[in-house]
């Protein structure tokens, strides 16, 4: 990758990001708390990072718009369809592994 020009690197990174989003949209069984406990980030983090990148470039993008893009639907709709209550074990693990969250 170090030998790639910036435009090609950006295209590959963007393609990988889009594929990650597709994967997460298909894996609605994987809860955000599971992602946080395992990897330290979740769908909300991705949407926040996307908004941060837009803000840094002065591109208008609201929090709701960034979440809709990441989730593939409005966030409240995704929560109603797919989000489950976290178990005590998940919450305990989250409490132990949440650096900065």
Compose a concise summary of this entry.
The protein is mainly alpha-helical and 101 residues long.
Write the layout of secondary structure elements.
Elements lengths: L5 H21 L5 H8 L3 H14 L6 H9 L3 H8 L5 H10 L4
Helix pairs in contact: 2-6, 3-4
Describe the structure.
The termini are far apart. With 101 residues, this protein is mostly helical. Helix content is 69%, strand content 0%. The model has no long low-confidence stretch (mean pLDDT 94). The protein has one domain (6-97): SMc04008-like fold, CATH 1.10.3340.
What keyword list fits this structure?
69% helix; 0% strand; SMc04008-like fold; mainly alpha; 101 residues
Low-confidence stretches: none
CATH superfamily: SMc04008-like
How would the global form be characterised?
A: globular
| SSE series | HHHHHH
Q: How many individual β-strands?
A: 0
CATH class label: Mainly Alpha
What proportion strand?
under 5%
* Rg (C-alpha, Å): 15 Å
Task: Report how far the terminal alpha carbons are from each other.
Answer: 32 Å
- The overall pLDDT average reads 94
Q: What's the CATH topology name?
A: SMc04008-like fold
Return the CATH architecture: Orthogonal Bundle
- Helix content percent band: 55-70%
- Largest sheet features: none
Number of helices: 6
Count of the separate structural domains: 1
Structural class: mainly alpha
């Amino acid at each position: 990758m170090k030998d790639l020009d910036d435009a090609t690197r950006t295209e590959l990174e963007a393609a990988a990001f889009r594929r990650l989003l597709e994967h997460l949209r298909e894996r609605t069984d994987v809860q955000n708390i599971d992602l946080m406990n395992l990897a330290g980030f979740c769908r909300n983090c991705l949407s926040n990072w996307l908004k941060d990148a837009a803000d840094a470039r002065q591109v208008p993008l609201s929090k709701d718009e960034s979440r809709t893009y990441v989730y593939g639907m409005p966030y409240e709709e995704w929560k109603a369809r797919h989000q489950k209550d976290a178990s005590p074990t998940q919450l305990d693990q989250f409490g132990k592994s949440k650096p900065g969250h």
